[in-house]
Amino acid sequence: MTLLELNALVREAIESELTGTYRVTAELSEVRTSAKGHCFIELIQKSERSNAAVAKAHGVIMAGTFQLLKLDFEETTGQAFCAGLQVLMEVRPTFSELYGYSLVVTDIDPTYTMGDMARKRQEIIERLRSEGVLELNKTIPLPMLIQNIAVVSSPTAAGYGDFCHQLDGNAMNYRFRHKLFAATMQGELTEPTIIQALEAIANDDEAWDAVVIIRGGGAVSDLNGFETYNLANHCAQFPVPIITGIGHERDTTVLDEVACVSLKTPTAVADFLIARMDMNAQKIQALFSRMKDAATEQVEQEKRRLHTSVTFLQQFSKGFRQRHELLVNNLFGNIVRSVRHRTEKERLSTDYNERRLKESVRKCLADARQRLYIVEQAIDMNNPQRILKLGYSITLKDGKALKRAADVKPGDIIVTRLHEGNIESTVNGLDETISE
Amino acid sequence: MTYAQATKRLEEIVEQVERNEQDIDMLTDLLKEAKELIAFCKERLYKVDQSVKEILEDDL
Description:
The complex is a heterodimer. Chain A is α/β, with parallel strands linked by helices. Chain A has ten helices and 14 strands.
């Protein structure tokens, strides 16, 4: 028997035995839409104890049905029809010789909204909330510049390569220092290896600005390792801000709920870090510009103030100078007037003295002349020639004028001097009577 | 000799001549001296006058 023949038997058995439709609860672990609008889904059932998958099945919702169901589902539940949801579906089991077993979905009960993964996640979240740790990592302020980055990832993951490439090749040439702390990013080793990596980061002497937990995409069921209380608790209480970029855009995990920042992909994390750097660089640039503007404004203000002061001083100085010039001029005028007054006074004094002197000298000379004249007159009056001329005579004895008769005796020879000529006589007698 | 000394001496001479005490022979000498003193004083006053004029022309 060929495989085809065997598969044909299986198909016939299924078609004959499972003729109707079945209402099945399962978790949507993957939802993909084809270009033609068909929706391909992965259904999963997990063990309640170990969280490991116990049943899986492929499913398809044909394009026409999917359009209606999706619209109805999203309108009713208020959320996208995506992986992670526990769904109640009406399915018809089919089998294809080529593609094997699959379920054709004919209806979805949108009221059965919460999938098992989402419910579990909610339980974990509620537990973390009740313990007061859910928001702890979110409350750590993210540094303005995230440059020292501890990366938790698988070293071989394409997502890690994308992250490094994106970060190191950033257009603005920002420098990031990142170090890998290797962990297994799928399956059951996810939780213990990530916790180990976080412990290594916590014990590292170097200061880390942030921890980045990244992983490439994959089937949603592969993310199960991230949906554990233990890991979420570790991350929530981790002292360094955690940024997640786990899986593709359509996946979220409980880790995303507790992380400080949750992003879709490793590339998105790298872009976020670059954008933050860029934003802060712009902030710094803006601050610098403001500072420059403020400084320039202050300098201008000081210039204006200085100019005002200078103008004031100039005006004040001019006024001061004018007032003092006037004062000095007045003083000088007073001095000039005093000098002129004084010189004039001195001139008058000198002239007066000169006049006095001239007058005094004239008077002196006149007095002298007067005195001389009187003396001259006196002398003239007593001139013997003038008296002789009047008829008087002088009697001389031995050349001396006789003034008394007693000075001669008879017989003496006496000479009588007349105005003109002398008479020599001999004394005969004496009359000593003094005539009046 | 200062202007003050000159004027003082001139005053003395004037007073002496006014009192008519001096020997007439001395009068000529005194007069001569007084004439010189007057010339000295006038010269000083003239110079002061000139200085004032020059200062006023320069600065005002």
